[in-house]
């Protein structure tokens, strides 16, 4: 007896609606609540319906279930009276979460929908791009990791050619860097303004014939040109974000206008809230004040409009996009979605069709592994924020283009590099009394050497080119560290700045830590004392920006930065 014929229809477990088709060997979703398997096809034991034996009472005997190796299934065991014993049933909500494991996955514009099995249909939906060494080969990297979500303005897809520039090659129009903490309990979703002026680095891009073409760097251009312009691929946008923030970008997910329309429809609509009625002829958004449910064209109009809220800039539009995405996350995590196999199938189908991803997550198996990690993060521990910016001094007009706030942006990047959560929901117990924490704190406590006694070799292990030489000049001319030398490039790149020193150089290490604002975790003591003129080794990582700027992350977010948790409902103004 299958799930549909057990109990009431609303008690059907979503997982039980996925059944094995013996003819194809694939698991398929049975959406008909009253449907049963046909007796005309082969049975799961390999025989036909007509070959099944009948009991003396005239009823067919159900063959014992076996696994692929021919062994009896645990569920096929019987009690003393010959009746099959079933395993205790997992509560519906819990089992749905186990099977869908993060189908909410990564909704930010694209949703990293979960496939229940390695379902070939979903696998065939995905588009992939080889970004070379710009991304990670592992679907779920160890420690904290980062995913760049890109919404392009490419007008492909039914009904989208009428939106603005129909010939756009697809720029990085909406950009969110999603930072997942090492302990997987929280995440920071940082929006990056498309009109921010930045430098785009050299970008090696794979061509259709298999060759690699390097698109040359550009200085002082809009962020959105890091994709599409001059043939740049998403790997270029990933490299641009890394250069800007000092954070490694492990994966990207990209989608066009259709993603918003199809995903919002697949979940049955997304709730949005407005403080005033809107009738925008440019985006075609027409909604009353208060709460509304949008999907399809209306959902797209809501995330596209920039003349209905705030100061009509892209910065104001970012806030309403965050509101929309937060609401979609809540909808995807709701019982209404998780408990509906029809919605789950539609969501997975729509999400995978809408997605273009890097080859590191370019299969349903890899994408599902990632989605299962992301889906376990509570919405209240997902914080949306926007990269702090100021008006571009070279522009002369307000909100035409912007540049990173020289103080707040670096502080936010430092927090993300240090894996410091922006949410205060989950309080961690103070560990100052632990032996490890006490030992680490001791590295920064103690006597300091004089600047003139500090002996150090500076290496570049991932900072901007020329940083080692710049640092040595700064140390010698401004800080009196005359025994400093430039060791050029390190043998290998490091994830963060590190200072290696001998036990008898601890006082020198503390002095250098003060000068650079190094955290205790950056100090790596050796086991043998230094001999003679042996110098410490300071290796600059991607977290180093410039001499005099502290590398250690601030304890809390900069004052005045915009942030809101994904479980909060905020009305667009």
Average pLDDT works out at 76
Please give the order of strands in the largest beta sheet. 3-16-11-4-5-6-17-25
Unreliable residue runs: 1-20, 31-80, 87-118, 160-165, 425-437
Strand content: 15-25%
Per DSSP E runs of 2 or more residues, the count of β-strands stands at 25
Shape: elongated
Main beta-sheet strand count, sense and barrel state? 8 strands, mixed
Terminal CA distance: 54 Å
Helix content: 10-25%
- Radius of gyration, CA atoms, in whole angstroms: 28 Å
User: Helix tally?
Assistant: 13
Q: Which structural category do the helix and sheet elements fall into?
A: alpha/beta
Walk me through this protein's architecture:
The protein is an alpha/beta fold. It has helices at 92-100, 120-123, 234-245, 257-266, 297-304, 314-332, 335-338, 341-354, 364-374, 408-417, 435-444, 467-478, 506-516; strands at 18-21, 26-29, 127-129, 145-152, 172-180, 187-191, 197-200, 203-206, 212-215, 218-222, 251-255, 270-274, 278-280, 285-287, 290-294, 356-358, 382-386, 389-391, 402-404, 455-460, 483-489, 498-501, 523-525, 536-540, 563-565. The protein is built from 13 helices and 25 strands. A hairpin with a 5-residue loop joins strand 8 (203-206) and strand 9 (212-215). It is elongated.
